[in-house]
Write a structure and sequence with these properties.
It contains six helices and eight strands; from the N terminus they run E-E-H-H-H-E-E-E-H-E-H-E-E-H. The protein is an alpha+beta fold and 192 residues long. This is GNAT family N-acetyltransferase.
Length: 192
């Protein structure tokens, strides 16, 4: 079993961004993102409706890191510290050396390579620092941008569940992608 330690909170740097712990002051930007139909369209959940609700989520996310259960970073530019989006490893399963990745980005910043850059840093952290063996992502199969992002970073679709998720009176499909630690991927290819 892995010994997951997420405190003190690990701040990550990329060429253009800082991935830092979410703050209560991120609430308005996060509320705008979590209530934007373009973002939540494929998340299959109701939008946030109040700043109180979003700030409570930020506190829950911070507690999850304190409890070593999951970690979510705010993606910001070092010049203005404005929250552009979030990315995190959640549902950490230490017994199985596995976690799930999730992410969201303000539509004003789509198609700029931001999430791809953040994902490189988070995958490196997950595999190198946390010593995860695999990272998975569950997406709505109609979310082509998410599918392209995952495939760009080496994720492979491992499952397709038909009508396994019920939302707003409809049964929806889910696609599960996963990525093995680079060493495991090389070992399995050499074994074949």
């Amino acid at each position: 079993m892995l010994n997951i330690q997420l405190t003190p909170f690990p701040e990550l740097q990329t060429a253009r961004f800082v991935l830092r712990q979410l703050r209560e002051s991120d609430g308005p930007a996060m509320l705008a993102q979590r209530s934007d139909e373009r973002i939540i369209r494929y998340l299959d959940r109701e939008p946030d409706t109040s700043l109180t609700q979003t700030v409570a989520l930020i506190e829950k996310i911070k507690q999850s890191a304190a409890d070593n259960l999951g970690i979510t970073w705010g993606i910001v530019r070092p010049t203005d510290d404005l929250l552009l989006g979030t990315i995190g490893l959640w549902r950490i399963m230490a017994d199985h050396h596995r976690a799930e990745i999730g992410y969201g980005l303000d539509p004003a910043y789509w198609q700029q390579g931001i999430m791809s850059e953040a994902m490189v840093a988070v995958l490196a952290y997950g595999f190198q620092q946390l010593k995860l063996h695999s990272i998975e992502a569950t997406i709505n199969p109609n979310n082509m941008a998410s599918k392209r992002l995952l495939e760009k970073h080496g994720f492979v679709q491992e499952a397709y569940f038909r009508e396994n998720y019920f939302f707003r009176g409809n049964f929806l499909d889910s696609a599960v992608y996963s990525l093995l630690t680079p060493n495991a991927t090389e070992a399995s290819q050499n074994h074949e």
